[in-house]
What does this fold into?
Amino acid sequence: NRLGASALMQGLADGYFVAPYTAGNYLAQADNNELTTDHEVFQKAEKAAKEKIEKLLSIKGKRTVDDFHKELGKLLWDNCGIVRKDEDLKKALKEIPKIREEFWKNVIIPGTADSFNQTLERAIRVADFLEMAELMIHDAADRRESCGCHLREESQTNEGEALRKDKKYSYVSAWEFKGVGKEPKLHKEELTFEDVELTQRSYK
It folds into this structure.
């Protein structure tokens, strides 16, 4: 529900700022004698991270990270906001790959990876945001109903009220990332209601 989702996002946002100051201190005091970096999973993750950083720093383009961030934000605001429609969502899905391609060809990141580099940090985040934004649009496009505070223009009552489609969309969506530029796979967890009957919400 909205409260649960809001709490989750709040936790993620707070964690982004809190974790760097708490996790490091905790790990410094923990007994790490048995921890090594020899594990295959660590080696693979470290290699991927270094390659991503090297690739970003090698681009030497002309557009700033903030410029791409704003472009992506406007695309979501215009096409995948509180009110959305099928036409706009399809348009956004076509635009995301173009922005991603331009980002990986023309972003400029001053400085190096050997020193504190906030622009590099933001660039890594924006690269992740591109994948997250694409997933959000896929999810919004798949759910062809008005639900919660989101209104699908194609899903309204004759009086203009939000129209849910409980029989078709009573499930939890879990999307599996299949790789950059590839369509994610949808997994559904069906919801059953034994003690409460679903009814249309009315604000009248």
